[in-house]
Amino acid sequence: MSGENLGRDQTLLPTILTFMLLGGEARAWGDLGHKVICEIAFGLVQPDTQAEINRLMQLDRKYKTFAESCVYPDHPRIRREEHYINLPRDSKGLTSDECPVAKVCVLTAILHDFYFLRAGNDDASKLEALKSLGHWVGDIHQPLHVAFLDDKEGNNIKTSGCGRKLHEVWDNCLVKESVGSDVSTAADKLKAAITPQIQSMWNASISPRDWANESFAITESTQTMYCTMHGSSCDMTASELTITASYLDANKPVVKQQLERAAVRLARLLDEAFH
Q1: CATH of the domain at 225
Q2: DSSP-derived secondary structure letter, 173
Q3: Spatial distance between the Cα atoms of 235 and 42, rounded to a whole number of angstroms
Q4: Range of the domain at 58
Q5: Longest CA pairwise span in the chain (Å)
Q6: What is the mean pLDDT of each run of 10 residues along the chain (275 residues)?
Q7: Which parts of 32-190 are beta strand (E)?
Q8: What is this structure's pTM?
Q9: Distance between alpha carbon 171 and the CA centroid of its chain, in Å?
Q10: Partners of 147 in the β-ladder
Q11: Cα distances (angstroms) measured from residue 205 to each of 41, 91, 175, 214
C-alpha cells in the first residue's frame, strides 16, 4: 500500500466507534515499551514534524511530551478491540486490510488515526489522533497482539520465573530485561543502533498489514512458545510455562528489533502526516 493510499482511502476506516469487549486483556509493551518507541520516533522525525508535535502536545492537559502521551489509550483503557488483531488458529496471516474476526482491530486503528492526523480540521482531533497513533503502532509490533482470541492473546497461559502470564512476559519482563527501565537511556541505545540502511530497509514496508504479519510470524515461532503447529493449526503449547534464562536470551534480540521497527515506522507515518 502506498503512503498516499494509507492516508486517503477512507473506505478502510472503521464505521463505528464503540465496540464490545471480546476478551482482550492485553496492554502491549507496558508503559515502558510504548514510551521508548515514541521517544525514538520523535528523535527520528524531521525538525518541522517535531515542531508540530510539540505544538499539539502543548494543548494537552495531562502529558507534557509525545513519549509520555503514547500510553494514553491504556489510561484509562479505551477502544478495547483496537489494541490487537485476532486470527483463526489455522491462519496464514493477513491478506487484506480488514480485521479477520472483528469489525475493527489495531490495523484499522492505525489507518483511522493516521487519516485524522493528516486530514483533521481541528487541533483537538489531531492531538487525539497523535496520542492514539503512537500507541497503535507500538501495539501492532508486540507479537502477542497479533494472536488468538481463545487464550486471550497469551493471557490465559500462566508463567513463572518472569511475569505471571505469557502476554505479560512480552509486555513488561522481556522489555526490562532487554533495554532496562529508564526510557531515555533505552531510547538512546536503541536509536544508536538504527543505521540509515536499516531505517531504509524497514521503511520499505509501509503497510501496517505487513507489520502485523511480521508480528504474527514471531507469535507462531517456536522460540516464543505460544503455540505449536499441528497440521495447519497453531495450537496452545501449554497452559503453564516456566520462563528460563535461555528463553529470555533467545527473545531479547526480538524485542529490541520490534521496538526499533515500531519507532522507525511511526516516525515515517508522522512525517507523512505533517507534510
Answers
A1: 1.10.575.10
A2: I
A3: 39
A4: 3-273
A5: 53
A6: 44 34 53 98 98 98 97 96 97 96 97 94 96 98 98 97 96 97 98 96 90 98 97 96 98 98 98 95
A7: 85-86, 146-147, 158-160
A8: 0.89
A9: 11
A10: 86
A11: 17, 21, 24, 11
